[in-house]
Amino acid sequence: MNFLAENISYLLEMQPDLAKEFQQNFDKLDLEKVSISDLEQISAFFKKSMDALVKQKMKFDAQKLPQIKMLVLDVDGVLTDGGVYYSESGDDAKKFNVKDGMGILQLRKRNFPVGIISSSLKADYISRRAADLKIEHIYVGKAEKLDILQQWCSELGIEKEQIAYIGDDINDKEILQYVGISACPNDAIDSVKCLCSIILSNDGGKACVREFIDKFIV
Description:
The chain is α/β, with parallel strands linked by helices. It is 40% helix and 12% strand. The chain has 2 domains: 52 residues, no CATH class; 155 residues, Rossmann fold (3-Layer(aba) Sandwich). The protein contains 10 helices and 8 strands. A hairpin with a 5-residue loop joins strand 2 and strand 3. Helix 5 runs parallel beside helix 10. It is globular. The two termini are 32 Å apart.
């Protein structure tokens, strides 16, 4: 079955800011008679593989969403914008989004498990933010992210298909391919976007986590 037309509609629904540009670039396109060249251009436009566009139904079945039993997050580029702020004294800082925080707190009030897995060199600011948001599952270090997640799944009795993960960079790719629902911010790197079933409208650090929670969990 060819899902191209359905997938294009879904991707434009998820990223409405692209609609005008898509119309300008592909206004004469007949989706019933798409050439390989057309498909290559559409693939490059949405940063999705040609196989995924044609063969994979990207829009989620609503009945699948209640199966999510844990949300796991990267930090830099997801909960933050990926920037680092340096003071004159040499101290560095990261900025978190309060809307993301409110969404996570609402999940935690329901005892919904939320986890953080980060490869950051510094754990202090992540630990403080996790404590503020009542997040109990947190790992910061150089171990493989997938190993940490598999350990949590074993401890909690949660299947990989019941995990949603939001990541943005190359060190998230393995785990994004493993989980049941993979998502990324709108400014994630292209190779991550190609892997994710959900590309969020918001950038990292700009309430992309809240967007995911509101649309797919709450």
